[in-house]
Amino acid sequence: MRQNPFVLLILFVLSSCASGPNVNARDPLEPLNRGVFKFNDAVDTAVLKPVATLYRDVTPVPVRQGVGNFFGNLKDAWSFVNNALQLKGQAAVESLVRFGVNTFIGLGGVLDVATEMGIEKHTKDFGHTLGYWGVAPGPYLVLPLLGPSTLRDTVALPVDLQGDIVANITHVPTRNTVTAVRAVDTRESLLDATTMLEEMALDKYTFTRDAFLQLRRSAIFDGDPPDEDEAEKSSVQDKEVKP
Amino acid sequence: MNRRLLARLLAVLVVGTSSLLAPPVHAADETADALINRLSTEVLNSIKADQSIQAGEVSRIIALVDAKLMPNMNFKRMTASAVGPAWRQASPEQQKRLQDEFKILLVRTYAGALAQVNDLTFIVKPLRASPEDREVVVRTVIKGRGDPIQLDYRLEKTPGEGAGWKIYNLNVMGVWLVETYRSQFVQEINGKGLDGLIATLTDRNKVNAKKG
Q1: Which tens digit of pLDDT belongs to each residue from B138-178?
Q2: pLDDT band for position A143 (cuts 50, 70, 90)
Q3: Does A230 lie at the interface with B, CB-CB under 8 angstroms?
Q4: Other CB atoms closer than 10 Å to residue A72's CB: what's the count?
C-alpha cells in the first residue's frame, strides 16, 4: 500500500472521527458514511432511479435480459480468475466454461446458454479473494456513487478495475457509453429491491449496512460462514462441524 | 449479482416465511429437515392454489400466517432477539405490541412477492446435526428462473409442542433476518425508548398499508 491517496484519505478520516455516542464496531466512520449515503441517495433520486425506471418502461424484457446477460458474462470472466485465485477448481472451471459457452454460442454473452445447460454461476471479485485468504473486511465504507463497501473491498477495487473488460476498452467514448449502460442496467435490476428497502427498513442506512456486511461475509464463505454473533451463538455451529 | 434480484428474493422469502403454513397435524415429532421439507411443499401448494394470496391480499395472508405459520415459529424469541437486552425491561403489553407490529411489517413486505411462487421449486440440503442437538440449521435452496437462492432456517427443539421444532430465525442469501433488524431496533430504543420503537413500527406499517 504505497501512497495510494485514497487509502491515505481513508486512514486520515478514520483517525479524525472515530468516536461518537453509539459507535458500531464495524462502522467507526458512521458520520462520514451517512453523509456519503445521503449524497448517493440524492443522486439516485435525481438521476439514476428515474433513468433506470424509464429504461424499464421503454425497453421490452428480452432486450433488458440480453443487456443484463451481456454484462453478467463479462463478470464471469473475472469470476474465473478469482475462483482460480481461491483454488476453487470446479467453480473456476464452470466460470470459464460459462464465459466460453455464452460468448461463442450465446452471441457474445447476450444469451445465457450456460444457465440453460445447468452450469452454475459463481460470482467472485477480488475483495472475495482477499477475504478468502484471511484479510479482514475492516471498517464499513460507503463510497461516492459506488455505494456500500469495506476498507478491504475498496483496496481491492483497483484490481477489480484491471480485471474489468469494460474498464479496459481503449476507445474512450465507447468505454464511457458502455459504463453508463451498465450502470443503468444494474440500477434497473435493483429497482424492486430498493422499493422493498423503503418499506422494510426503519433506517435505510443501518439496514443496508447490516445486510451488506452479512451478504459479503456469507459470499466469502460460500454461503456457510462460521458463527460470529454473540447473541445468536449457540452450540449449533460447533456441533455442525463434526461429521 | 443478478437480474430482478429483489423480486426473486421476495418470492423466496414468501416461500420461506410461509413454508410454515401447514397445520401441525403430525402427532409424533419430526426431524427438523423433514418438517421444513413438509412445510415448504404444503405451503407452496397452498399458495399456488389460492389466487387472493398470490394477489397479495394482506389481511388474508396475515390470517393464514396466524393460523398456520405461527404455531411452527417461536416469533417471541425472534422479536426478543431483534430487540436485544431492552426486551427484558419491556412490559408484557409492550412485548405483545412489538411482536404484533414486527410481524405485520414482515408479512406486508413479503406479501407482494406471492405472485412469483409459481415457478419455484426447492431442495432441502442434508442436515448436518446429531440427534441430541437442541438447535439446528436447516439449509434449503430455492430454484426459479435465475440463480439458485439460499434460504436457511434456525430451529429449536420443542419436544411435544407443535411438530417438535420451532423456527426462530431465517436467512436469505446469507442475510439473517433478526441480525438485520437488531441495530435498527437498538437505534430506536436508544433514541426514543421502547415505546418509541413501537410507535415507529406502527407508523411504518400504516405508511406501507397506504401504499397498498
Answers
A1: 999 887 665 677 889 999 999 888 888 999 998 888 889 99
A2: very high
A3: no
A4: 24
CATH of the domain at B92: 1.10.10.640
In-domain check, residue B141:
no
What is this model's ipTM? 0.76
* pTM of the entire predicted model: 0.80
CB A29 within 8 A of CB A14: yes
Q: And the C-alpha cell for A36? A: 456519503
Is B204 a member of any domain? Answer: yes
User: For A2-56, how does the pLDDT look when each residue is reduced to its tens digit (9 = 90+)?
Assistant: 455 555 555 555 554 444 556 788 999 999 999 999 999 999 999 999 999 999 9
User: C-alpha cell of B210?
Assistant: 397506504
B7 touches chain A (CB under 8 A): yes
User: Is the model's pLDDT at B21 over the cut of 80?
Assistant: no
B 170-189 residues with CB < 8 A to A = 173-176, 178-185, 187-188
Backbone angles phi, psi at A33, to 5 degrees: -60, -40
Phi-psi region of B119 (alpha: psi -120 to 50; beta: other; left: phi over 0): alpha
Does B184 fall in a domain? yes
Domains of chain B: total:
1
Domain that holds residue B105: 3-118+179-211
- Tell me the C-alpha distance between B60 and A55, whole Å: 35
Written as nine digits, the cell of B153 is 432456517
Contact B169 A68 (CB under 8 A): no
- Distance, in Å, from the CA atom of B197 to the CA atom of B53, rounded to the nearest integer, reads 29
Does B137 reside within a domain?
A: no
